[in-house]
């Protein structure tokens, strides 16, 4: 998709203040040097950007304020089929905020969020992909604080667990049954 100057102005304004009203946006988005866009024109542009998949308006969460912890899991996989299996299993996991294929020593990187280090340890040891088939090597990098971005697109409080997709079933998990883990849908 090709962005024009108006689209770029709208995206920049929304980046600075995502809840800005359309009537305020019409004062800062210009069609020309002296003519601003109408709020209805801006609304149509925003809808076009959303429909194209370029823009998604959503609530993002400051994990530092919640005092949540995070880690990055790097995985070297045995083959591409195993890479696809991990992606399919964890693409909807509520704890995974980043899932990307990378090049170099590792094939995948996952960003994983939890309420505490204990929760993250429990996840890695019981539910995480490190104990899945096809992993040759993995490494964990623990974060201390998110500097940029401060806000992440997390769906922490949906109450819907996706444990069956990752092939982990909480009701059969020793950590879940002993109340050491509240399950992926329990933030």
TrEMBL record:
<dbReference type="InterPro" id="IPR019888">
    <property type="entry name" value="Tscrpt_reg_AsnC-like"/>
</dbReference>
<protein>
    <recommendedName>
        <fullName>HTH asnC-type domain-containing protein</fullName>
    </recommendedName>
</protein>
<dbReference type="GO" id="GO:0005829">
    <property type="term" value="C:cytosol"/>
</dbReference>
<dbReference type="InterPro" id="IPR036390">
    <property type="entry name" value="WH_DNA-bd_sf"/>
</dbReference>
<dbReference type="GO" id="GO:0043200">
    <property type="term" value="P:response to amino acid"/>
</dbReference>
<dbReference type="GO" id="GO:0043565">
    <property type="term" value="F:sequence-specific DNA binding"/>
</dbReference>
<dbReference type="InterPro" id="IPR036388">
    <property type="entry name" value="WH-like_DNA-bd_sf"/>
</dbReference>
């Amino acid at each position: 998709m090709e962005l024009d100057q108006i689209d770029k102005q709208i995206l920049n304004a929304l980046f600075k203040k995502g809840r800005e009203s359309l009537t305020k946006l019409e004062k800062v988005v210009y069609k020309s040097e002296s003519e601003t866009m109408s709020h209805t024109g801006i609304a149509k542009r925003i809808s076009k950007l959303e429909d194209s998949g370029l823009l998604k308006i959503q609530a993002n969460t400051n994990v530092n304020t919640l005092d949540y912890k995070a880690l990055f899991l790097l995985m070297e996989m045995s083959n591409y089929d195993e890479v696809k299996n991990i992606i399919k299993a964890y693409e909807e996991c509520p704890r995974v905020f980043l899932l990307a294929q990378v090049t170099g020593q590792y094939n995948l990187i996952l960003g994983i969020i939890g309420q505490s280090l204990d929760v993250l340890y429990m996840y890695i040891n019981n539910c995480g992909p490190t104990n899945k088939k096809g992993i040759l090597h993995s490494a964990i990098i623990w974060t201390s604080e998110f500097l940029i971005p401060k806000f992440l697109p997390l769906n922490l409080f949906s109450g819907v667990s996706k444990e069956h997709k990752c092939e982990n079933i909480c009701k059969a998990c020793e950590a879940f049954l002993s109340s050491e883990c509240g399950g992926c849908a329990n933030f």
